[in-house]
Amino acid sequence: MIQFKKVTKAYPNGFNALCNIDLVIPENEFVYLIGPSGAGKSTLLRLIFMEELASSGEIIIDKYVLSELTPVQIPYYRRNIGMIFQDYKLLPRRTVYENVAFALHVMHVSPKKIREQVDYALDLVGLSGKKTHYPRELSGGEQQKICIARAIVNQPAILLCDEPTGNLDPETSWEIVHLLTKINAYNTTILMATHDTEIVDGIPKRVIAVNKGILARDQVLGTYVQ
Amino acid sequence: MTGINALLFFLNETFIGIRRSRLMSLIAVATVAVTLIILGLFMVISANIGRITYDIASKLDIRLFLKKNMSIEDIQQFKRKLKSIEGINDVVFIDNDTAWNTLKEHYSHLQFDEFIEKNPLPHSLIITLNRSHDIAPMILYLKRYNTIIDDIVYGGELAERVDVFRKFISLFGWSLIILLVMSSLFIIVNTIRLTVIVRDEEIGIMQLVGATNRFIKIPFLIEGFIIGILGAGIAVTVLILVYNPIVSQLVEELPFLPFITNHSSLYYIYGFVLMSGAIIGTVGAYISISRSLK
Ligand SMILES: Nc1ncnc2c1ncn2[C@@H]1O[C@H](COP(=O)(O)OP(=O)(O)OP(=O)(O)O)[C@@H](O)[C@H]1O
Ligand SMILES: [Mg+2]
Question: Which of A8, A21, A32, A43 maximizes ligand 1 atoms within 8 Å of its Cβ, making it the mutation to test the pocket?
Answer without folding.
Answer: A43
